[in-house]
Design goal:
The chain is α+β, with helices and mostly antiparallel strands. The chain contains ten helices and eight strands. An eight-stranded antiparallel β-sheet has the order 1-6-8-7-3-4-2-5. GO terms for molecular function: DNA-binding transcription factor activity; sequence-specific DNA binding.
């Protein structure tokens, strides 16, 4: 299955189950992806989370029901997954700007979020610098934290984790330990298939035993797509990820191998416009 086709299948699955409670794992399975990779891909393509997309679509359909039938508001709330009319009314007003009772009288100002379609456009003006290399397995040592991909917990938790590590100078210790095949301090995403949890590591490649305060992780032998990242953090890293998802994956035959991926950081000034970093994606 192609990359775009997988995303479209997942969208079709969401649309077919808007009135049900479905998990991110079930949705991602339609795209043959892990929950983490699908959530990130979807967010980078649409600028909203999977949960927010489904919420907007449900409230769009609820508005159509509200203005096109005489269904009671309490029944409408239950139909679209809200426990009480009050919680439904609050969500409805947040999206549409008016209460359900007001919308029934005046539907002119309602907002409609239509079903998504994914279209790939070829953008060649700004080339991406990358290389494909194969490496044997290697060890990283560092700190590990589990995060959930539900409700964007990982999106807020990971930056806080980095702030903590930079603030207590653990990053300096990791730079000193770095003697492995990858140079720098690493952000490692280790996702679990069919699980809303992922392990995020702030680590470094190190050949010896892990110091007492650190854990170790074996990175399997892989074929890697290594992308250059130029510019200050965090924007340069985020922009490169967006181009990888929007342009690189759709335009070639490589697919994510499902094993841990790396962001590689140097000890240079993170605000420098000339800062060099890398993204390592295991591919097949």
């Amino acid at each position: 299955m192609g990359w775009v086709e997988g995303i479209q299948r997942a969208i079709a699955y969401m649309e077919g189950h808007l009135l049900e409670e479905v998990s991110i794992e079930e949705i991602a399975r339609e795209a043959h992806s892990s929950a983490f990779h699908f959530q990130r891909t979807f967010s980078l393509l649409t600028d909203i989370s999977v949960g927010e997309y489904m919420r907007r679509r449900r409230l769009t359909l609820a508005a159509e029901d509200l203005t096109g039938s005489d269904i009671k508001i309490i029944d409408l709330a239950l139909k679209y997954g809200y426990d009480t009319p009050e919680s439904f009314s609050k969500a409805f007003k947040k999206q549409h700007g008016i209460k359900p009772s007001e919308a029934r009288k005046n539907a002119r100002n309602l907002k409609s979020y239509n079903r998504l379609t994914i279209q790939v456009s070829i953008k060649g003006a700004e080339p991406m610098n990358y290389k494909i290399v194969e490496k044997e397995s290697f060890q990283v040592v560092g700190l590990r934290r589990p995060f959930s991909v539900k409700n964007g917990e990982n999106l807020s938790g990971i930056p806080a984790f980095w702030n903590e590590v930079n603030g207590n100078k653990t990053d300096a210790t990791l730079f000193q330990l770095n003697d492995g095949v990858v140079k720098g301090v690493l952000g490692v995403c280790d996702t679990k298939e069919d699980s809303p949890l992922m392990d995020y590591w702030i680590a470094t490649a190190h050949e010896g035993e892990a110091p007492n305060s650190f854990e170790s992780l074996e990175i399997p032998a892989s074929k890697w797509a290594i992308f250059e990242v130029r510019g200050p953090m965090p924007d340069a890293m985020q922009n490169t990820w967006k181009k990888i998802i929007q342009e690189w994956f759709p335009s070639n035959s490589y697919r994510h191998a499902g094993t841990p991926e790396l962001e590689v950081y140097t000890d240079e000034d993170p605000t420098s416009p000339n800062l060099y970093s890398e993204i390592w994606i295991p591919v097949k």
